[in-house]
Amino acid sequence: SPLTATSAAGIVRAELTIDRPTIATNSSNSSNSDQQGSACPFLASLPSPPLVKVPWHKRFQQLFAPQQFQAAVLAGHSGSMVQVPKQIGFTNFVMPNDPELVREAFAGELSGTTLQSNIESFVNLMGEHSLVLVQEPRHKYLRGLLQPAFSGSAIAGYLPAIQQLVTRHLAEWEAAGPAGVQGYDGLKLLTYEFIISITLGRVYSRQEVLSLSEHYKHWTLGFLAWPWLDLPFTPFGRAVRAKQALLAHFQEAVSAARAKLAAGQQVPGIIGILTAAVDEEGNT
After folding, report:
1. Cβ partners under 8 Å of residue 175, min gap 6
2. DSSP tag of 84
3. Which tops the pLDDT comparison, 8 or 55?
4. Which of 1, 124, 185, 280 is 20 to 30 A from 211 in CA distance terms?
5. By three-state DSSP, how is residue 96 classified?
6. Are 61 and 68 in contact (CB under 8 A)?
7. 13 in Cβ contact with 48 (< 8 Å)
8. What percent of the chain has pLDDT over 70?
9. CA–CA separation, 189 and 273 (whole Å)
10. Does residue 128 have a pLDDT over 90?
11. Which of 21, 1, 24 is nearest to 11 (CA)?
C-alpha cells in the first residue's frame, strides 16, 4: 500500500541515489539526531515511486520553466510522488504529487533541506561551504547559529530601519510625478537595498547600492553559465569576479563589526547578531 502523507514526510529525505533512496530517520526515532542518512529497510521494502524518464534536452525546463517542467513530469501520474533519474548534468530527485504530502513535509522541522548539485558553475559560485550546499550535521549546526538573527524580537528590532528605507523609496516614487517609475526596476532596487542595509546594518548611498547590485547581477548570471572558463570576457569569469568583489565587501563589513564589538560598541542589523553568535563550545 502507498505511504501516507504523514509517514512519507516524516521519514523520507529528498535525496536519492541513482537506484535507491537515501533516508534520514526522524530525530524522534533515532538515538542520534545528527546521524547521516542511511538505507532504510522499511522504505526499501516498499515499491519505489514511479520512474519518469524525461528527454535530456527537456531537463533544462526545470531551470528555466519549472512550472511547465513540473506539469510535464506529473502528467498522467496519480500517486503521491514520482522520481526522475539522474542524467548528464542533472541530479536525480523525487517530485511530490500530493498537496497534503507537501504540507506535511513543510509543517515540521526541515532537517536535511540542502541542495546537491553537479553543475560546476553553481557550486563554484555558491561555494562548497554555502548553507544551501553543506550537508548534515553541519547544516543543522549553521542553522542554529543563524536562528537568533531571525527571531521575533530580532526582526522587531529591524523594523525602524525597514520603515525608514521603505518610506524613502515611496517618497522618491511619488516625487517622480507624471514621469512615473518603472515598477519592476523600482521594486528590485528597493529589495536589494533592503537586503544589504538590514543585513549589514548601515545606510547605503544610491551609488553604492547600484554598484553592489551590478555585482550581484553578474554573480547570479553565472550560476548556469557555460563554458566554465574563468576568463574576463566569459559570463562565468565575470561572475567569479563579481563574487570576489561581493565577498571583499562583506568581509570588510564583518571585520568592522567585530572591531566594534571588541570595543564594547553595539552593531546594528543582522550582522551584529551573527558576529556576536557563540556556539555551545564557545566558538565565535
Report:
1. none
2. E
3. 55
4. 124
5. strand
6. yes
7. no
8. 77
9. 25
10. no
11. 24
d(CA 156, CA 164): 14
The dihedral through the CA atoms of 242, 243, 246, 249 has a sign that is negative
Q: For the CA atoms of the chain, what is the radius of gyration? A: 22
Cell of 62: 526545470
The tens digit of pLDDT for each residue in 222-279 reads 987 878 888 889 999 999 999 999 999 999 999 999 999 999 999 999 999 999 887 7
Residue written as cell 548570471? 221
Q: Using a pLDDT cut of 90, give the percent of the chain over it.
A: 34
Cα 141 from Cα 34, distance rounded (Å): 10
pTM score, whole prediction:
0.61
Placement of cell 510522488 in the chain? 81
Dihedral angle over CA of 72, 75, 80, 81, nearest 10: -30
